Amino acid sequence: MAEKIEIMETVLRDAHQCLVATRMRTEDMLPIAAELDDVGYWSAETWGGATFDATLRYLKEDPWERLRKLRAAMPKTRFQMLLRGQNVVGYRNYPDDVVQAFVQRAAANGIDVFRIFDAMNDIRNMKIAIEAALKTGKLVEGTVCYTISPVHSVDYFLQVAENLADMGVQLICLKDMAGMLAPYAAYEIIKKIKSRIALPLHLHSHCTAGLAPMTYMMAIEAGADILDTAIAPFSQGTSQPATEQVVAALKGTPHDTGLDLSKLNKIADYFYRIRRNYAEFESPVNNQIKTDVLISQIPGGMLSNLVAQLRQQKAEDKLDAVLAEMPHVRADLGYPPLVTPTSQIVGSQAALNVMTGRRYSVVAMETRNYVMGLYGKPPGPVSDEMKKMVLGKKEPITCRPADLLKPGLQQARKDAGGLATSEEDVVTYALFPEIARDYFTLRDGRMKTTESRKQVAR
User: Fold this and answer.
1) Quick one: DSSP state of residue 381?
2) pLDDT tens-digit readout, 196-216
3) pTM recorded for the entire structure
4) In Å, how far are 83, 129, 135, 230 from 169, measured between CA atoms?
5) C-alpha count within 13 angstroms, C-beta hemisphere, residue 359
6) Greatest Cα pair distance in the chain
7) Among the four 3, 69, 255, 354, which has the fewest Cβ within 10 Å?
């Protein structure tokens, strides 16, 4: 059993990704940065996940500049990021040289801990990112994505964790992105991992189904070392348990976090005010306990964005039907854990099935690529009907998907031309060329004033 429990604060990344569609601006983070830095968190999650894309696409901010500004404002606290393995911070596999360059520049700009995962738990898709992160001398969390299906078992999760440990990671993360991990299941999995692997275990969960606070307590009993929490104004719902809640529950016990509630309360007061700025991005499920997530398995970060997308299409009334369709699509695809990008693949295909009124009358390109094996090896078999419909007589690939990709960094440098003014710009262009081009043009004042206003307003 772990003694002191350490805390990772998620308010600057996953919490607002889950609750307000990743829209928190840097200008709303910096005024409270010094107070966050003074708390004594084990780490603060400040980057990665959907924030890179959303910062560029919606906020017209440079994600690298955000990282540098936060790093300057919070010199004492470890910065942690979420890295999607070969997908980096995007939605497809990128060439190895792009992955390596991204990791190197992220470390140089202030990231101390890389949480690296793959949506399929395919170790091949994490290898290059893990090796690159270890080479920087930073900490690496090898991540096991938790899900529930006929093909996922305690021994399955243990095997993934052992494979990650063999690759040299310094921590193991159990990532419960949809908030489905029940207390006793957590106890069994964590107990077994801790009995076999002598590394700290970091648990990530969400409150979507109302299980996470209870799960955290059982995880502590099983030996978990670090927990993800969010300051109260951005906690609960599809986010993490409240930081204050966990700190208060453990106070005066052998697991006391050592964090000061009065400091946390001051930070909470600030974020209660800030959250009002993002009311238009609030999801109707934010303040609900949704046990149906145990069926749909949709992760917290995607749920708020799915609602926003359906709202834009004036189809918000289709949400329940889309959620009901998702487990059927997931079964057809071999039960992938639902986390970026597989959550988007399954969610988008489920939405197409619902909106067209006929299942698979339209098959998204991402679904076709998944069945072809371009995202990795599915945990379970893809249905024969699905393979025949999508691939015809073609056979799925069996190699590591990124082995099929040519190096991409120099091509990105060439294509970006004079728009890229730094190595970070080149990496950004390699990841999101169209969005990067729009942003660089706007940033450098090359866009006409009227068009600039439209871009910023999007």
Assistant:
1) P
2) 999 999 999 999 889 999 999
3) 0.90
4) 14, 11, 11, 25
5) 12
6) 64
7) 3
